[in-house]
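WARN no homologs supplied; continuing
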Amino acid sequence: MKQDWSLPYSGVTQHLDQVGKIYAVYDPYIEQDRLHIERIQHPNLVPLR
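OK structure emitted
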């Protein structure tokens, strides 16, 4: 399933500079979880498996 990230506030990446650390809990064995974390590359992001 392809996602549409073009709508306002549909993606978090445009707001990452406005917050501190972001802790994202995800399951690397679930493809949708893993792909979502891979598309959000930011120094504030701390991915937790």
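The two ends are 23 Å apart (CA to CA).
OK
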